[in-house]
Amino acid sequence: GQVIAPARVGSARTNAGRYCNHALFANAEIIITKSGADLVALKNIEESDEITVNYRHVLNHRLLKGDLCQE
Question: Cβ neighbours of residue 30 under 8 Å, at least 6 residues apart?
Fold first, then answer.
């Protein structure tokens, strides 16, 4: 999918990363990059749509990395 915005730059969350919400059937996902993390569209997102991610996928990735710390 298309990158919507950075969710993290280094260890700092961006506003895009901070304000996306949870949905079981999300329209975006967070992809870890060398410089942080990006929000990537899973389907077409209209300008008025809320950007959502499935928090279970994010938490699962953090669990596998051994990093369950929160800001």
Answer: 7, 17, 37, 38, 39, 40, 53, 57, 58, 61
Write the burial class of residue 61 (CB in 10 Å: 0-12 exposed, 13-18 middle, 19+ buried).
middle
Instruction: Outline where the chain has alpha helix (H).
Output: 15-19, 55-65
pTM: 0.78
Q: What secondary structure letter does DSSP report for 25?
A: T
Express each pLDDT in 26-57 by its tens digit. Answer: 999 998 888 888 999 999 999 999 999 998 87
Amino acid at 14: T
Contacts of 9 (CB under 8 A, 6+ apart): 35, 36
